[in-house]
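Sample pair:
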Amino acid sequence: MDSAEYPNMAKERFCAGVAKFLEGLYLEAEEEFKEALHYDPSLPLAYCYLSIIAIERDDVEIGLRWCDKGLEVDPENGYIRYCLGAAYERKGLYEEAVREYRAYLRDHPRDAECMFSLGCVYDQAGKMYDAIKYYKHAISLDAGHYKACYNLALALGEQGHIPDAINFLKKTVSISPDYWKGWIKLGLFFSYEKRWQDSMNAYEKAISLRSDVADSHYNLGLCYLTSKKPRQAIKSFVEAVRLNTEDSDSLFYIAIAYLDLQEEEEAIAALKKTLSVCLNHEKAHYLLGRLYFLRGEEAKGEKELTYLRGIASAYVSALEAYIQASIK
């Protein structure tokens, strides 16, 4: 091939690579970008895409090498600096990631996605003040950035600003109604405020979008239990156990719900199942001991008390006090 055709071939291969990248065909895109660089090694964006593909595959070192090669070609290219920031972020090198993201923002000060990325880095580094600041910057530039709203809500919640966190979670799910993670966190933060009906509505919505998350069923069960809806609570806890057979806490709360219904036999069965999953579940031993003494089955109750003593449980004194009170 005539070398005069190389620039055209490079452009053709690069455009083909972008198309395949956008389709999620990363392997094919990678080959196209490499072919483009064969014809024209000075294409900085080809290095960017190759870096992104490597990072998406968790080949961070390869991603860094592509960035380094790109910077050799164009040392001031902001897009390569952005990719370099992403690679450093993935490696947990937060100071380096901040440096590269800031370098990109000097030329692109209104890039909401980079503001969001910078917020994420500060978040992961535990610098919540800066994380909140950059999440807010991202939202000011792109009011529809639901992930920035979501991350901002979590950061605010971590700082104890629950009402503000709820407002940003509401914004998250109004922008992206199918974002199930937003509904789960909304349910959680509503529960912090003891807004049980709102919490139940949020968890029910989350489950309608993603029914295979055990924690959603568990938390919904707690809301039902607190709202004196034991039958519905049992259904939620049973589903949580179906999804996670080692969930001893859901089994324990099934017992609590049965006690609310005054169905002792079912409660005892649930407590025994709890202990079959987690022998050291202290609250289950305590409650089972209480029930046995209440039913006049002292020998069984003493067995539970002996077990609690053997593990130096904080529930020993509570069960002993209950036994003494019942004797009087």
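The CA atoms of residues 13 and 36 lie 5 Å apart.
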